[in-house]
Amino acid sequence: MRKFAIIIAMLLLLCSCRKLEEESIETTAQTELQTEIITEIKTEPATEIETEPPVDTTNDGIVSILMAGDVLLHDKVANSGKMNDGTYNYDHMFSNVRSDIENADIAIVNQEVILGGRDLGLSGYPSFNGAFEVGDAIVSSGFDVVLHATNHALDKGKKGLLSCISFWEETYPEIAYLGISDTKEKSEEIYVVEKEGIRFAILNYTYGTNGIPLPSDMPYCVNILNKDRIKDDVSRAKEISDFVIVCPHWGTEYILTADNNQKYWTDVFFDAGVDLVIGTHPHVVEPVELIERDGHSMLVYYSIGNYINATAQTGAGIANRMLGALADITVSKTENDVAITDYGIIPIVSHVKSGEGQCTVYKLDDYTEELASQNEIIYSDSSFSLTYLQDLCEKVFGELYN
């Protein structure tokens, strides 16, 4: 009996050991499986979460305006665009200031002479006509607005003016050309452009057209300075914009100060509520003035001179025509107002040199005595030099240059 009991006990012990072994195996398997799962989880590549890039609000409500003066196509300038292969290209005229033009929110240029195209015959002083390729260069360099209300608008008559208008409308409909029109309706339009939530109205007028009468069937084709019209245009502009710019072609040629006529129109613009005036026509630079009275302020650039020129005239004072300026203005928007918050000038130099692609423009800061010695204008006025230009800039602009 005792022997039988021992056998039963041994059988029970054997079964118990087997059960423990199975449980151990199962536990080991579960542990290995959990380890494998955890390892897979840890080594699974992280999922990329696509996010929108942060919005740069640094310049919200801040707009930069740049304006270049007279693009004056004297013979050397016009001929510099004729390439050796017979094509025409004028990109070189803007290459040294291209980045400044491109970086401006609104870039304006005064196209002094009509661009009637080569089919009408290119010509220089005194009755100008420029190639369409000048317009190509203006656009490729980054300008947004082209001014055409100048005393040379009718140098090639109605035909030249209409040819110029067709070029802009058909080739570059995105570019605003101002100051000339082929219909009465267009002549009455107020150009407005919006940047950074600020609406800018830009108006362009000239004192006259060198004695050439306006066509009897198109008396509206060139915007002429007229007090009643200006008051009406500015009034309408203020209704649809936040900031009004007027670009008048005015003043006396080659005089370094504003004349009485400019002062008269300045009062007209101020009383009408204009915010910024940038003048052209004198072919030399004139001072900048901030006028403030009766709760209103208006900044006036009386003349920013030539952007580029190569006059064939000679004598004292010719060197003055080689200095121009880019008007550089910052306009900012606050909760209650839109106003000019900074302004200045970028002095530039017309560099005259014969040959393909040689006539160009440099910033005065980049100009050297070596370049000045190569400028062919020195044969027209021996006083021309880098120092001469720097002294002239300081004389006209004072602290604004320094």
Could you outline the blueprint of secondary structure elements for this entry?
Blueprint: H1 2-43, E1 62-71, H2 75-79, H3 98-103, E2 106-110, H4 132-140, E3 145-147, H5 157-171, E4 176-178, H6 184-187, E5 191-195, E6 198-206, H7 227-240, E7 243-249, H8 260-272, E8 276-278, E9 288-293, E10 296-301, E11 306-308, E12 323-333, E13 338-351, E14 360-363, H9 369-374, H10 386-397
Parallel strand pairs: 1-2, 1-11, 2-3, 3-4, 6-7, 7-8, 8-10
Antiparallel strand pairs: 1-12, 5-6, 9-10, 12-13, 13-14
Helix pairs in contact: 7-8
Could you name the key traits of this structure?
single chain, 402 residues, alpha/beta, Purple Acid Phosphatase, chain A, domain 2, 8-stranded mixed beta sheet, 6-stranded mixed beta sheet, 10 helices, globular, disordered N terminus
